[in-house]
Write a structure and sequence with these properties.
By secondary structure, the protein is an alpha+beta fold. The protein is built from 9 helices and 5 strands; from the N terminus they run E-H-E-E-H-H-H-H-E-H-E-H-H-H. It has a 5-stranded antiparallel beta sheet, sandwiched between helices. The relative contact order is 0.16.
């Protein structure tokens, strides 16, 4: 299962050991680590990215999450002083794009006190014991969330809403008086503009999720080459799960695209 994992440690030095522990579990085939980043909270409470996420289709998503967490982990005071409502909304949107909710960040924030460090990792993990055991030996705390399909679900909902809105406005137009038709047409045009945005986003998301899935499968296949017979079945199962997840996401995105197209052609 694809998860976002955050391990919080008492210091940056111990976090480096935790980072190595995750890499070791990857090499052993117990988990698959797609991308990593390291955050540090200094004595003044400032959170910074000490080690940026790996580059590539997967690392880009984790980098976005890391950047969003830096802003949100500043806490209520930091957000009040340094972030506008628009900025806060943008940070939350980036989290949603990463498949993570704000509650997850809040849980991490409570554990990441001054002087501590956290390792962020986008992982494929079948069971929690290997990570919990290794991190626990280093005195770390593990937080994990399944990567959800927030963006895909949102695109379907919004595309359906615009399709219904255009349909309703068209019905109103058919019965409206001549003096009201221009105003209704303006509403139709505006709704169609938004539907076009939804269609474009769905197309872009299809390309993005395909690139991410291909990168993950490549990583898993590379891991498979060096896996023991005991681990090969687990890794092959992870590959199948990535493919199934891609199909599910694409089905939703295609649905969103169809709904948006219907709105545009009404």
């Amino acid at each position: 299962m694809n998860k976002m994992l955050v391990a919080v440690f008492d210091s940056e030095v111990v976090a480096a050991e935790g980072f190595s522990a995750l890499k070791g579990l990857h090499n052993d085939g117990d988990i698959t680590v797609y991308a990593t980043a390291v955050l540090v909270k200094d004595a003044s409470g400032k959170v910074s990215i000490k080690q940026a996420a790996d580059q590539g289709p997967i690392g880009t998503g984790l980098g976005m999450l890391a950047g969003s967490m830096v802003g949100l982990l500043a806490g209520p005071v930091g957000l009040a002083v340094g972030a506008s409502m628009g900025t806060l909304t943008g940070l939350i949107f980036d989290l949603n794009k990463s498949g993570i909710d704000v509650q997850f960040v809040d849980d991490v924030s409570k554990a990441l006190s001054s002087g501590k460090a956290a390792v962020l990792a986008d992982v494929e993990e079948s069971w929690a014991v290997p990570v919990d055991t290794r991190v626990g030996k280093l005195g770390g705390m593990v937080f994990r969330r399944l990567r959800s399909e927030v963006v895909e679900d949102q695109l379907v909902r919004e595309s359906a809403a615009f399709q219904a809105e255009v349909k309703q406005l068209k019905e109103e137009m058919a019965q409206a008086r001549a003096e009201n038709k221009a105003a209704i047409q303006a509403q139709i045009d505006e709704a169609k503009k938004k539907a076009q945005v939804m269609q474009d986003q769905a197309k872009a998301r299809i390309d993005q999720t395909k690139r991410e899935a291909e990168a993950k499968i490549t990583a898993l296949q590379g891991q498979l080459k060096h896996a023991s017979d005991r681990q090969k079945a687990k890794i092959e199962k992870r590959i199948a799960e990535v493919k199934a997840d891609l199909e599910a996401r694409h089905a939703k995105l295609q649905q969103a695209g169809r709904l948006a197209k219907e709105a545009l052609t009404l």
